[in-house]
Design brief:
The complex is a heterodimer of chains A (about 260) and B (about 260). Chain A has about 260 residues and is an all-alpha fold. Chain A contains 11 helices and no strands. Chain A is about 80% helix and about 0% strand. In chain A, α5 crosses α6 and α7 crosses α8. Chain B is globular, with a radius of gyration of 19 Å. A 6-stranded mixed beta sheet of chain B has the order 6-7-8-3-9-10, sandwiched between helices. A 4-stranded antiparallel beta sheet of chain B has the order 2-1-4-5, with helices on one face. In chain B, α4 packs across α5 and α7 crosses α9. The longest helix of chain B has 18 residues. Chain B is built from 9 helices and 10 strands. Chain B has about 260 residues and is α/β, with parallel strands linked by helices. In chain B, a hairpin with a 5-residue loop joins β1 and β2. The chains are: A mainly alpha (about 260), B alpha/beta (about 260). Chains A and B meet through α7, α8 and α11 of A and β6 of B.
Chain lengths: ~260, ~260
């Protein structure tokens, strides 16, 4: 592992170099007044703005709002999707009952549901949690169903021959065996959840990072707008990073296995 | 000796969609005495594994019934364990070796995880893997994985151990080692053993009695007692003229050649 990383580092350094080069080019273009600084501020100015927002603690309230909405909807919808997926994957009756409905709802781009949701739920947290939850639910459900249906019959029969009950079979054999696919679905869902929380906040106009990005644009505070976009990008990167670390802990056995 | 496991008139047909049913097993009757080692041999694809899965109540027969200690079996009974051919699929990759073995008993009422582990150490020791309890199954060789599966099966303290070609996926030398191990454990633990195999040498070497199945739909062509002395030895027993004669008889039956 360490050896492979050591062999990769010159390429990684080159990749980072591309980012730095692009930023330097933009910086030079702004300083030389080739572009309108009202549209594109200098990266160093944006960086200074990010430092100020973070340093002053101004970042905390919007970040807290966005993370609360994202996590509340993400964990509730994931739990519901895993429970539903276990039932659909294990019991053909459930599968036949729900599969057509899932297939109709799944391909629909979830932002299309925002207008009707706003009619029913208004612009508050209920609407935001619902749209994020809907976005998270389907990828987790689809992967759970696929994971559960793919559990080898030998594993299930092993549970039977040792006389473990239905609940133990589901929780101690089927769930862990399906976990690699469930987590893959949850990773996709985390990205979708972040997209949806930003869109919902932009529409509702009541707070959070998404709201600030659009609010700063409307009030011509372009540096602030870019600063919040940068903060959102870092948040997205950090969420994915933490997810991968947790995944590594939960299914280390599947990642380390040779086959 | 009293029959421990009785297969009475077992038939099994599989329906393949709208197509005609295929008959896998046709009216198979076999009794296994308490403490006996029975081997079932037959050509590949004859339904030996299906028969064993019916005996374990993992699948239901189309006709006939299974009785275990005189009682009709409809669900996997306490005291009977099935050992799978595909040990690597049967072991839980997310559990350590000791926790794999502990699975055998952790569903018993009042059993704690810690007590299940304590119970399991003894059985892991019996298969010579005491040192490997904290490893994961996929970190072990094929032969060691099958030892873990054997330890797990025995940890349930079965009266009957049903073995589905358990030695067919390991290399030839490992197979001989596992033969020795299973006989040792069978002698020490005194369970009843039913082994399904396509390996005639294996059947004769291990068993008290060998049942020969025909091709599909399978019926019992013959059962014969091996009568070889115990303890059996990997070298001496396999060179015994009686071993060779039995092997000859069984192979000629399976290959459908006249006796030479």
């Amino acid at each position: 592992m360490a050896e492979a990383a050591a062999r990769r580092w010159p390429e990684r350094a080159l990749g980072a170099g591309v980012i730095l080069f692009a930023l330097a080019a933009v910086e030079a273009a702004v300083r030389a007044k080739w572009v309108n600084p009202a549209l594109i501020p200098a990266p160093t100015d944006v960086a200074a703005r990010v430092a100020q927002i973070v340093g002053s603690g101004e970042v905390l309230a919007p970040l807290g709002t966005t993370l609360y909405l994202l996590f509340a909807a993400y964990f509730a919808a994931s739990a519901l999707a895993i429970a539903t997926g276990l039932l659909m994957g294990r019991f053909p009756a459930f599968y036949n009952l729900l599969e057509p409905l899932v297939e109709v709802l799944r391909p629909l781009p979830k932002p299309a549901l925002l207008p009707p949701l706003i009619l029913f739920l208004g612009l508050g947290d209920a609407m935001k949690l619902t749209i994020i939850g809907l976005g998270v639910f389907f990828p987790v459900l689809i992967n759970t169903v696929q994971g559960v249906r793919g559990v080898d019959r030998v594993l299930v029969d092993t549970g039977h021959t040792f006389r473990c009950g239905r609940a133990a079979l589901l929780l101690r054999i089927v769930l862990p065996a399906a976990m690699p696919l469930i987590l893959a679905g949850m990773r996709v869902a985390l990205g979708l959840g972040l997209i949806l929380v930003v869109i919902a906040e932009m529409l509702s106009g009541t707070g959070g990072i998404g709201y600030l990005i659009i609010d700063m644009q409307r009030s011509f505070r372009v540096q602030h707008m870019y600063a919040w976009i940068v903060i959102l990008a870092v948040l997205g990167y950090a969420l994915n990073f933490v997810f991968l670390k947790l995944e590594q802990r939960v299914i280390h056995w599947a990642l380390a296995r040779p086959d | 000796m009293a029959a421990c496991l009785e297969l009475a008139g077992i038939s099994k047909s599989f329906s393949a969609g709208a197509a005609a049913e295929t008959r896998a097993l046709a009216d198979i009757t076999l009794d296994v005495a308490d403490g006996e080692f029975l081997a079932v041999v037959g050509p590949s694809g004859c339904g030996k594994s299906t028969l064993l899965q019916i005996a374990a109540a993992l699948i239901a027969p189309s006709a006939g019934e299974v009785r275990f200690r005189g009682e009709r079996v409809t669900a996997p009974p306490e005291g009977m364990v099935y050992l799978f051919q595909q040990y690597s699929k049967s072991l839980f990759a997310w559990r350590t070796v000791i926790d794999n073995v502990a699975f055998a008993v952790e569903h018993r009422p009042g059993m704690t995880r810690r007590a299940a582990r304590e119970h399991s150490r003894r059985f892991l020791g019996m298969v010579g893997l005491s040192e490997f309890g904290e490893r994961y199954p996929w970190q072990l060789s094929g032969g060691m994985q099958q030892r873990v599966a054997i330890a797990r099966a025995l940890a349930a303290e079965p009266r009957v151990l049903l073995m589905d070609e358990p030695f067919s996926a390991v290399d030839a030398l490992t197979r001989l080692e596992l033969h020795g191990l299973i006989l040792e454990l069978w002698t020490a633990q005194g369970f009843t053993a039913v082994l399904v195999t396509h390996d005639v040498d294996e059947a004769v070497f291990l068993a008290d009695r060998v049942a020969v199945l025909s091709a599909r739909p399978a019926t019992v062509v013959r059962t014969l007692a091996t009568g070889l002395p115990r303890p059996r030895d990997n070298l001496a027993t396999r060179e015994d003229p009686r071993f060779l004669a039995l092997r000859h008889d069984l192979l000629s039956m399976l290959l459908k050649r006249p006796h030479g």
